[in-house]
Amino acid sequence: MVTKSADRCVLDIKGLTVAYQQEGEWLEAVREVSLSIHSGETYGLVGESGSGKTTLILAVMNYLGDRGSIRSGEIQLGDIDLLSLNDTQLRQVWGSKIALVPQNPQSALNPSLQVGDQLIEILRYQLNLSKKEAENQAIEWLERVHLADPIRVAESYPHQISGGMQQRAMIAMALCTAPDLLILDEPTTNLDVTTQAVILDLIRELIQDQDTGVLYVTHNLGVIAQICDRVAVMYDSDLVEDAATHDLFSQPLHPYTQGLIDSIPHLGDTKDSIQLRAISGQIPPIGEAPSGCVFRTRCPIAIEICNSRPPLYLAGDARYSRCHLWEEIDRHEISTHQPTLVGTPVPIPTQEEQPLTLEVNDLSIHFSIRRSVAEVIRRQPARAVRAVNQVDLDISPGSTVGLVGESGSGKTTIARGIMGLEAKSNGSIELLQIPLPDKLSQRDLETLRLLQIVFQNPQEALNPYLPIGETLRRPLIRLLGLSKTEADARVGELLAAVRLPPSYAGRLPGQLSGGEIQRVALARAIASNPELLVLDEPISSLDVSVQAAILNLVGELQSDHQNSLLFISHDLAIVGYLADQIAVIYLGSLMEVTGPGDLFHPPHHPYTEALLSSIPQVDPASREPPIYLEGDIPTPAELPSGCPFHTRCPRFLGEICTTTTPPWQVDQSTGKRIFCHIPPNDLAAVQKRIITRGSSDA
Amino acid sequence: MTRFILRRLGFLTLTVLLTSLLVFLVTQWLPGDVCRIILGREAGQGAIETCRLELGLDQPLPIQYLNWLGDFLTGDWGISFSTNLPIYPIVMDRMGNSLMLALVALLISVPLGVALGIIAGLNENKPIDSTINVGSLSVVGLPEFVTGLVLIQVFSFGLRDLGLPYFPANSSIPPDANFLEALPMLILPALTAMLVLLAYIARLTRSGVIEELKQPYVRTADLKGLPRRTVIVKHVLRNALLPTITIIAISTGWLISGLVVIENVFNYPGLGRLMIFAIDRRDLPLLQAVTMVTVLGFALANLGADLLYGLLNPRIRLE
User: Fold this and answer.
1) Residues A37 and A172 in one domain
2) Is the reported ipTM for this assembly greater than 0.85?
3) Are B225 and A372 an interchain contact pair (Cβ–Cβ within 8 Å)?
4) Does any domain span residue A40?
5) Is the four-CA dihedral A179, A180, A186, A191 of positive or negative sign?
6) Concatenated DSSP letters for B113-174?
7) Best residue in A110, A114, A186 to probe B by mutation, most B CBs within 10 Å?
8) Which residue among A41, A481, A559, A673 is the one 20 to 30 A from A601 at the CA level?
């Protein structure tokens, strides 16, 4: 390891207040924030959308644009007073002293310039290199971020390379000038977990041998726990807690931090073992924060004193909390856990004789690619994107099946196939033992009534010009045949069922927050009392603190209505928490089908094993390093032969994996089915238990 | 890239063929017998029959079409009914004039329009932006004959009355004039056409610049510490000008053959006036030829737009 120079402060923020002008009024987006980052230190900044963390990092770079303004405070970058610089002087600081790796590399790269040119540009300008030298260094840097074919990447346009590769290029761009301060703004949020694990490892490796101070912004506490030395937590423009990472996770001294930690299911939690403690309410919109403590309206321990604004208390050695009651929390005199819901979900009666709600057999969905004239002349066979291949999936009445996979795995295509939005190429889909026609237009109203879906992005799925009440009334009138007056009465009940006030019936989707719209989408889906409800990533577009509330609501609605759920997600922890049975999908093929707690026990399919190990954990104690998957996910237009996972499999056996389709093997102890050539017992023998907590410990 | 060009060329050929068929059929269906028009009311039935045989009008329509197309492609465009002169040289001469006018109009309006658009876009909602917006819009709202007449009043009669060098009000270029001799006569009609185009180009450029300035890659470029000029020129404009380039290329088609009003105001011998002439005289072969040239002009302008767009936008090119 390179010896680091004397510990020096690279960023010192004092009493920073930033405001945006909106209709003549100044709304504070960052309020009296102070923090300092030393060289070699990685500082985490956690917050949900609207917490002010993005404004804070823009202010740190003095890049706020026209509407935002720094109202008070100082920002010291080493010995430079950042706020005194004019545009020309700032440009001498940007790129050389401060660098940013943004959330979405696809849009952060210029679509019309080759990746190499975008890297060469900064090398030439900031380091005054000649064209030749800059080209050489660019290739060197692309190698340094572990891009397998740096020359090809340099010659590619951004849209020709994968998201993971784009983000590596952005990291190279940020680090090539050896900046004093590196700001990482959710650098892995748009990436798959397996890619995230590799990128996090890369970031860790690169910042280790540089003297850089790092500000790492994310909403993901697991990532913070993995990579950061210190953490600052922001809520509604305020910095509410600031502590060393270990201290923060072992004893949070602010109720909001505790709420955040409690509200996400940890890997290994199941709905039978633990109940999620959702933070009640919503984040207030900007400019509508309550007076006094900003968290007061959602806080389980708020008392009268909280009406006055708490200062940032020094709460021990180098840790701070903006809570009047931090001492009581520290002494364990009060609990900051949010109350759990009263009444546990009714266990689902298992009736062997009942017919399956959904039976998917040998389902394949392929999209043909149009051949070019040249290909037709050369008599090349037509190719197809084989999005879904030979999938078998059963859902029994009242149960929840989780479908987990990364982007491009085909999980949404399966949902669309079931819903009649995509025609199947082979196999059958039966709802209550009646085969479903391919097309939506061929299905009768009763089928539509029995089968409903909630889409990932509720803002886009609901008609923006239709009042909520009308959106809810339509399925009632059309699918249940209710009269207008009956339907109007039901609308109120539906809103109540998803905990929204009846007055929302008159509102438009645009007037609701993300969590509220998703509640409406849920209400719309359950309006016709469907047998099967498909939930396609229903919480991934929501803020962490409202995710838990939606998850709890889904559970409640299910126990009230006794319908079956197909829950689709990329998040193993969430699926593991909610589902009775879990199917793991990779490149259109199921890899493993398992019971709820069993997901976290060996034997695992090698892909599941890699997935599980990739998820950053809040409690990182005694954890094996992640299993890194090599390369990118192959395209479904050119599926690998034999086992689809063989190109990236860490437990690759040899020829058999490349030539022969694996068998479905059943593990005797757990009953889980694994799509692999390796016998389950052999897998179990070599695989460690990845999760230390979970259902079996209960 | 080759495939991209070949595909576009294929589309172009198809478009032109389809329109040629349409042009041929429409003129077939126009009321009145061609030979009757040529020979006049008094001609006897025998003369008409002979004429029909000479022109091949007794043959089935598909054959007539193929003959006509073949002749057209080999440059045998026939004889104008009204002037009894070969059509090809007439149309070529007029097209030369139209191209000259289009070129001058483009040379003035493109740099000016793009520059105004960039200035406006970079200064969104500031006084200079509003000035450019209001100015260009108020000009584009005026009909061409009004702006044309105003320009003649000011730059021709006005300057002349002040005893200054002035532009000619009448732009009827003699057939043997070269470009430099014709240039003074081109300025006023070109300015008139330019005023129509300017606002479109400026507004499209402006919205392109504003749209691209919001893109995250601009922030990336800024935060590399590049000078603002480099950020604008190298990063923003490359993407912001894409729609403008398309509209410029497409307008070229209009500039070549759509300037009927302007040509009339200035008495300019271009394709537009030739078309009006052919319609007035019911000169079918001339009308067919002018229409085909016009269609070809539009198609080529569109091809140019596609190719330029593909060249500048890697996302299209590589599809």
Assistant:
1) no
2) no
3) no
4) yes
5) positive
6) HHHHHHHHHHTTTSHHHHHHHHHHHHHHHS-HHHHHHHHIIIIIIIHHHTTS----S-----
7) A110
8) A559
